[in-house]
Amino acid sequence: xxxxxxxxxxxxxxxxxxxxxxxxxxxxxxxxxxxxxxxxxxxxxxxxxxxxxxxxxxxxxxxxxxxxxxxxxxxxxxxxxxxxxxxxxxxxxxxxxxxxxxxxxxxxxxxxxxxxxxxxxxxxxxxxxxxxxxxxxxxxxxxxxxxxxxxxxxxxxxxxxxxxxxxxxxxxx
Amino acid sequence: xxxxxxxxxxxxxxxxxxxxxxxxxxxxxxxxxxxxxxxxxxxxxxxxxxxxxxxxxxxxxxxxxxxxxxxxxxxxxxxxxxxxxxxxxxxxxxxxxxxxxxxxxxxxxxxxxxxxxxxxxxxxxxxxxxxxxxxxxxxxxxxxxxxxxxxxxxxxxxxxxxxxxxxxxxxxxx
Lengths: 173, 174
Fold this sequence. Notes:
Helix content of chain A: 10-25%
Oligomer: heterodimer
Radius of gyration of chain B: 19 Å
Largest sheet of chain A: 6 strands, antiparallel
Structural class of chain A: alpha+beta
Shape of chain B: elongated
Helix content of chain B: 10-25%
Largest sheet of chain B: 6 strands, antiparallel
CATH architecture of the largest domain in chain A: Roll
Distance between the termini of chain A: 26 Å
Radius of gyration of chain A: 19 Å
Structural class of chain B: alpha+beta
Number of domains of chain B: 1
Shape of chain A: elongated
Order of helices and strands of chain B: EEEEHHHEEEE
CATH architecture of chain B: Roll
Largest interface: A-B, 53 and 54 residues
CATH topology of the largest domain in chain A: Thiol Ester Dehydrase, Chain A
Distance between the termini of chain B: 31 Å
Strand content of chain A: 35-45%
Order of helices and strands of chain A: EEEEHHHHEEEEH
Number of helices of chain A: 5
Strand content of chain B: 35-45%
CATH topology of chain B: Thiol Ester Dehydrase, Chain A
CATH class of the largest domain in chain A: Alpha Beta
Number of domains of chain A: 2
Number of helices of chain B: 3
C-alpha cells in the first residue's frame, strides 16, 4: 500500500494543501473510494433542466409529471453523470482535460432524496505521445446509492499532469 | 419554396391550437438529422456554478489564476456541463423521451471556454421497436458545435421515446 499526502510542508509548521494525485502515483488495479457522497433534491433536477434551456414539462409541471410519468421524481441522467464524474475530482484533481467516456450505464434510476457514493478503479495508464508533460489514465467509475444499488458506471479516459510538470508552482499550489 | 415537416400545434377546438412538443417514436427514422435551436452561450459563471453545485474540486474550472498557467490560459468548461447543455438543447424534438438508457461513447473533441456558444444537432442512427405498445428505442448521435462551426463534443446514446397516443399526454392537457 502506498501513502499519499494531503499537505506539503513549506516551512516549519507551515503546510499547504495538495490537490489530487500525480500521474506517477497511479497504478493499474488501484481503487479509490471517493468522498463526500451527494444527495439529490427535486430542486437540483429542476434547475439543472432550466439552465440547459430545457423547458420539458416533466421537470417544471408537476401535474404533467404525475399524469405521464406517475409523479416519479427521477433525477436526470445527465445530472447523475455530471455528479458522479465530479465526485472523482479529489483524487483526479490534476486533470488536464477529459478525453471521453465509454459504456455509460444507469442500472438503477436515482430518485429525489437518494445519496450516491462513487469509487474508481485504475484500468490502465500510458504516457501521452503528443504531450510529454502528461499521461493518459483509463479508469472505471461506479456509483451506488445509500442502499448499495449501482446507479451509474462508466469508463473514462483523462489526461493527468506528471510530477513537477504541471502548472502548480506557477499558480501557487 | 420552404418545405415543412411535423406539426408544431395540435388543433383542440375551433380556432384553438395547443403547442406540441416533441416528436412521437413513429416520427423518427434512421438517417434524420435534427438541428436544435436555440443555441446557448456558456459563461464562466455557469462553469463555476456547475463545478461547485456538483462538488467538482478540479480548480481548472474555477480558479482563473491557476487556469492561466495551463495551456488553456483560462478556465476549461466542465465536460459534463457541455454534455448537459447539449442534451438539454434537444428537448423540443425529444420531449417524449422517457429516459436515456446509456451512452456508448462520449468524445470531447475540442475544449469549451466561458463565452462559447453551443448548438446541438442530433442524428438518428438506429430505431428499434421491440413490440412495447407504449414506446420504442432510438440510438442517437448528438454533436455540440460552437460559434466557429467546430464540433466540441460528440456522443452516441440510446433513448426510449413514447409512441403516439400510447401515453396520457392529452389527458395531461399536452
